[in-house]
Amino acid sequence: MEGSADYLGQLEAALEKRSQWLLETQTQRLKDAIISYQSLFDGAMAMLIRKGLLREDPYNYEQAFTEIVIPKDDPLPDFENTDEVSYRLAAFRRQLRFLTEEAGFDLNSLTLVRLKKISALVTFINWLDFGEGSTSPTTRAFARVFMKVRMGTDSMASQILKDCDIQAVKTIHQIRAMVAELIAYHRETWKAELRRKALVQVPLGTPDARVRKEEALRAIRRGFAQWVPGKPWYPALADEVLEEELSGDGPGMKEKVLASLAVVEAEEVKTTALPEGKPVLLEAVRILSRPHEELATALAILEENERLLLLENRGSAGGWLRRLLGRKAAPHTVERAYKVEYAEPGVPALKTEVIDFPKLLEEVKKKSSLMATLSSGKGPALRRLASTNEGQLAAFVDKQLNELLLIHRRLGSLNTYFHDRAVQEKKTTRGIKIELLAIKNSIVKGNQRRHDYKESGAR
User: Fold this and answer.
1) Is residue 429 a contact partner of residue 308, using CB atoms and an 8 Å limit?
2) What pLDDT, in 10s, does the model give residues 43-76?
3) Cα gap 218→215, rounded to integer Å
4) Is residue 33 exposed (0-12), middle (13-18) or buried (19+ Cβ within 10 Å)?
5) Above pLDDT 70, what percent of the chain?
6) How confident is the model at residue 36, as a pLDDT?
């Protein structure tokens, strides 16, 4: 067993060096890649929900999790399955959020069991076999609505989903490669512990190697819980240990294990020579923030138009009579929710939405204020963004883009609504076409910078 003891010393030294490298580079890279994937998927979902092809979680409840749970993927009903697909995708998003916000990414947390669950979770939507021919029912259903927009006439939405598709495939490959590295490390760590605590308890002196292996495997299995308490039993890995000890190829197998654990210079260069993506993302933030003044102007004009239209109540006969008699009108609240219509490219029928105007005003004013801070190129908000990792920064860009797209549509719908009412009532209102054009230009240019970042392969 002297040779085994020498090998165990080399193995443990290699594992120690490997664990340090994984902690310093790969675990954070894995988390960043999963955050990037979460951002991509959230952006695609926001687009499809906004177009009415999917819904927000129809069951609308939150759950507390202590471990990853893979959503169900059994066959869907042939018709009226939008709610069920939306529910599954919402459950998937909750699991991604749990993984990135609550699950640990240290080596102790990334056990073999959890790594296999991570692998299953990130491939729940099978982007590598994405389409109507996928073997996954949920992937097929998601691909069906995804491709309606991806191949539709809305060029901006199509480009966003095209970018999402391309980048999702790249990110999944990255995640799977890093998960495979971590699984390989944990496999060899388990085998080293088996050698250190269990193998020394079992004699390997029988002349017949095959008999020795079978007897040793049974003996190790019987004493495993006592020698290695609290650890799961992996028969295939125990078999590998005995193959390395007893087979004629044992020395070569051990050399391959040590070589696989070595932290070579090429790996270090690979992790440090990646293209720097932060400047591109920060430029996208500044571009998307440029039309803050146009947002403020558009709001002021829409408020002015609303006031003009609401004045009709003051000029009514009932109002004149109450003023003449000195009586006050009964208190009431003016309804400021407006049912507007808007067109979706590729969809012949107009869609409708009820917009709570005071709520929209508040949200857009906050957005305009934030954009003013970010567009200046300085200030604490931008410094905080610059200090985040690329995955979080990319997620912020996607969020800004989706929110601006929604604001642009709602402002345009309200502009049309107030104009049409003014024409009916023979009144004159101001339009916001110039402001809408400036916002749209920023969306197009910001999305192009986002596309440049993702095409560069930056993480």
Assistant:
1) yes
2) 888 889 888 898 887 565 566 677 899 999 999 8
3) 5
4) buried
5) 85
6) 85
Q: Residue 117 forms beta bridges with which residues? A: none
How far apart, in Å, do the first and last CA atoms of the chain sit?
Answer: 47
CB 22 within 8 A of CB 182: yes
Whole-structure pTM value = 0.64
Residues whose CB is less than 8 angstroms from the CB of residue 65 and which lie 6 or more positions away in sequence, other chains included = 94, 95, 98, 102
The reported pLDDT for the residue numbered 63 is: 66
What's the pLDDT score for residue 315? 47
Cα distances from 46 to residues 39, 407, 446, in angstroms, run 10, 13, 18
Distance of alpha carbon 163 from alpha carbon 44, whole angstroms: 10
Largest CA-CA distance found in the chain, in angstroms, rounded: 118
